[in-house]
Design brief:
mainly alpha
Length: 300
């Protein structure tokens, strides 16, 4: 069997060149592995090393090993905890809004309506745009002088992005607008997979719409909805582009923005590497909690 797996048909072009199946497989796999090592594995290992040093990329001074010094300083810094608090609030607002809006749109589209394909395609357009473009676009919409949001809501010269209390909500609304279609797409796939005979049986039993939703629709769509929540929570923790463009308020300084400033404006390379690993640990911990509930939802 092994001999068959490493030989090609004698009349093929690859066989004429003296290439075996094993050689062809290696030609595809080895470059991929090399690419992953160079651009993924090596930066991870190198940044882990710098996290335990006082290295600064802006100077030619050698990196000195300081052990857990960077981690201790970060965990004792009240400003870092403030960044985490702001980010946690942002993630809750953003992901919750995306779930409600995305799932609501999926429920509306999960029925025969005219031009359903065109409407679905148009609703998917926001998540295909560049986050930087989305940030600039919404900055114009929020403008107190000529932005159409204040005009339609009748808010006059209200400054969304300059108000410390509303700036974070304004950034979260942009994220909801951009990524609700992602939740909608996954939810629509889950809704279309629900067996129709369950709804027919509920209709025969004269079950109301609320009973049908909470006993049939939601339990069966919950696993795929939880997957959407996992992906969006991970991405929300990494939000940078449109948040950085939209507002410079201290109340909108997410951990990704603080990490950027620490690494590329203050040039605290070792400190920023340690900060990045703290964020990684937090995201992995939250993801594991979600996966635990996802497995429970699948088991039901």
């Amino acid at each position: 069997m092994a001999d068959v797996m490493t030989r090609l048909e004698p009349d093929t072009r690859a066989a004429a060149r003296g290439l075996s199946d094993l050689s062809i497989r290696n030609l595809f796999i080895i470059p991929t592995i090399a690419f992953l090592i160079i651009f993924n594995v090596f930066p991870l290992i190198y940044s882990l090393y710098t996290a335990f040093t006082d290295y600064r990329a802006s100077t030619s001074a050698p990196a000195n090993w300081i052990g857990l010094g960077n981690f201790r300083e970060l965990l004792n810094d009240p400003n870092i905890w403030r960044n985490f608090t702001i980010t946690a609030k942002y993630v809750v607002i953003s992901v919750t809004g995306q779930v409600f809006v995305g799932f609501g749109l999926a429920m509306l589209l999960n029925r025969p309506i005219p031009l359903k394909g065109l409407i679905t395609t148009l609703l998917l357009l926001p998540m295909m745009l560049s986050p930087a473009v989305v940030g600039l676009f919404w900055k114009l919409l929020y403008d107190p002088s000529f932005g159409i949001i204040n005009f339609f809501l009748g808010l006059g010269k209200f400054e969304w992005l300059a108000d410390p209390q509303m700036a974070l909500w304004a950034v979260a609304i942009v994220d909801i607008w951009m990524w609700s279609p992602f939740v909608m797409l996954l939810s629509l796939a889950g809704l279309s997979a629900v067996p129709k005979h369950l709804y027919e049986a509920a209709e025969i039993d004269r079950a109301g719409p609320f009973y049908t939703f909470f006993r049939i629709t939601l339990p069966l769509v919950a696993p795929i909805l939880m997957i959407a929540i996992i992906f969006r929570t991970m991405e929300a923790f990494k939000t940078f582009d449109h948040a950085y463009i939209l507002s410079t308020q201290p109340t909108t300084e997410l951990i990704a923005i603080r990490l950027y400033k620490m690494a590329f404006l203050e040039w605290q390379t070792g400190m920023s590497s340690a900060f990045a690993y703290i964020v990684l640990i937090v995201v992995v911990a939250i993801t594991n909690i979600y996966v635990k509930y996802l497995n429970k939802a699948k088991a039901r």
